């Protein structure tokens, strides 16, 4: 290959020298640190995701992952093998108050088999519910930079790092930060997302973005035949998928492995398509660009003209709306106060 001269562009030259891939260079395989059996779902320098619907026991499941990491051993079916200089865990909770977070910490310590007299020396658990998304990001970023021997970061509630889960720009910013944090500090990061109520997709544009960038995605769902059991399966993985396993909550309010669990076979064929939802199916950016076109001639008087303008505006952004979908969008943008009816005319705000 011809020699390239980027000396006039110092920043570009530095990026190229750091990022260039060569056939003659030796690259180190990312250390495998989190496994289920002989299947790896977590390596240093990458991030993974847990998704599940409400009440599927997602936090119980991640408690087992954290307990395994802190003890560098096995809990439920999770095995942890962190290097000696990567044994510290940072656990961020963005959703719950301090009392609930303490209950989760209590659970983690008991899963490790330790007494409740003191906090684990290699764990920092932070409850960031009271902070804004920008403040949460700053706290996480600075903690990751400051903590020595950091190996694992948990973010329980990554959606709370955004204002709008359907914003493509915000979703890209957050996924880029996760990739940068994990690469620069050579840590593993595991985060938790809710699933849509109507299907198995992670909620919002942030869900799509993280699913595409994560090295693995775990799904936690309530067993369809026994509601007391939660099932963990590998939904997406760059490596070998693990066999689904299940846990229940025992009398001590701890997750306990269900022995000899046989997963329910899923129905053949395509899953049922979810009904159209303007909030989930169209990003905020597309909504606003479409409305700009729809209202390019100013306010609109009649409702029928308003719906026709919406169909034209959304068509300009590549979104084809039939009559029923256009009516649903009209209701959505009015409910969101993007469009208001004032003095019997519709106006785009």
TrEMBL record:
Record Pfam families: AAA_25 (PF13481)
Domain of life of the native organism: Bacteria
Protein name: AAA family ATPase
Taxonomic source organism: Butyricimonas paravirosa
């Amino acid at each position: 290959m011809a020699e390239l001269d980027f000396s006039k562009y110092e920043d570009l030259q530095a990026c190229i020298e750091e990022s260039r891939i060569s056939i003659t260079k030796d690259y180190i395989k990312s250390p495998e640190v989190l496994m289920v059996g002989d299947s790896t779902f977590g390596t240093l320098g990458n991030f993974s995701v847990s998704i599940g619907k409400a009440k599927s026991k997602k936090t119980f499941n991640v408690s087992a992952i954290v307990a395994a990491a802190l003890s560098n051993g096995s809990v439920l079916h999770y095995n942890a093998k962190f290097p000696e200089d990567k044994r510290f865990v940072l656990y961020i909770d963005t959703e719950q108050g301090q009392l609930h977070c303490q209950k989760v910490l209590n659970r983690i310590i008991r899963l490790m088999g330790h007494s409740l007299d003191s906090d684990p020396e290699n764990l920092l658990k932070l409850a960031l519910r009271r902070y804004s998304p920008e403040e949460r990001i700053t706290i996480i970023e600075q903690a990751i930079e400051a903590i020595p021997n950091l190996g694992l970061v948990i973010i329980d509630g990554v959606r709370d790092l955004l204002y709008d889960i359907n914003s493509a720009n915000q979703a890209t910013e957050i996924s880029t930060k996760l990739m940068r944090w994990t690469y620069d500090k050579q840590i593993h990061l595991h985060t938790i997302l809710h699933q849509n109520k109507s299907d198995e997709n992670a909620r919002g544009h942030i869900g799509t973005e993280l699913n595409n960038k994560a090295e693995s995605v775990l799904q936690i769902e309530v067993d369809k035949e026994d509601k007391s059991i939660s099932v963990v399966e590998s939904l997406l993985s760059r490596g070998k998928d693990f066999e689904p396993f299940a846990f229940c909550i025992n009398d001590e309010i701890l997750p306990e492995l269900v022995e000899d669990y046989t997963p329910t076979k899923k129905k053949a064929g395509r899953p049922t398509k979810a009904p159209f939802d303007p909030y989930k199916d169209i990003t905020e950016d597309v909504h606003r660009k479409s409305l700009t076109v729809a209202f390019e001639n100013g306010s609109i008087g009649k409702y029928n003209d308003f719906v026709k303008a919406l169909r034209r505006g959304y068509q300009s952004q590549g979104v084809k709306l039939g009559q029923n979908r256009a009516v649903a969008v009209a209701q959505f943008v009015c409910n969101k106060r993007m469009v208001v009816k004032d003095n019997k005319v519709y106006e785009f705000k």
